[in-house]
Amino acid sequence: MQRYLEKISGPLLDRIDLIVNVPRDCIMRCRNLQKERCGKLNSDLDNPDIEWLCALDQASEKLLATAVDKLKLSARACHRILKIARTIADMNNHESIELGDITEAVAYRRMDLHFSSGSLT
């Protein structure tokens, strides 16, 4: 696996949000919810959509700001975390993004950064 990961460029890995096994019925429910809510999937949200649909409470904002600072995340990476957190919230039937949703999204991003650095330890 290490050799395979070394062959994948960082910019390519940066375009993959995450890979997680999720039951098909959960995926379909979330996709339908997202399309009903705003006519598109969370992955297709633009900046105004993100501001509207991915609003965070104070604790979640603080956590995201800390992650951005410590992990040296770009604006693109921050937006990806927000879209992933929105999807996690959808899967958990949360109307808005909760602290646990943003925590999980940041954890996935940390895992992505760990793999893209070429280190599996």
The strand count comes to 0
Q: Could you give a short account of the major beta sheet?
A: none
Q: What structural class is derived from the secondary structure elements?
A: mainly alpha
Q: Span from first to last CA?
A: 12 Å
Number of domains: 1
**Apparent shape:** globular
Kindly estimate the percentage of residues that lie in beta strands according to DSSP.
under 5%
Q: What's the helix-strand series?
A: HHHHHHH
Global mean pLDDT: 86
Percent range for helical residues?
55-70%
Secondary structure tally, helices: 7
Kindly provide the radius of gyration, computed on alpha-carbon positions and rounded to a whole number of angstroms.
15 Å
Low-confidence stretches: none
Summarize the structure in words.
This protein is an all-alpha fold. It has one domain (2-116). Helix content is 68%, strand content 0%. The model has no long low-confidence stretch (mean pLDDT 86).
Secondary-structure map:
Layout: H1 2-7, H2 10-14, H3 24-38, H4 47-53, H5 58-71, H6 75-91, H7 99-116
Helix pairs in contact: 5-7, 6-7
Which descriptors would you attach to this protein?
121 residues, mainly alpha, 7 helices
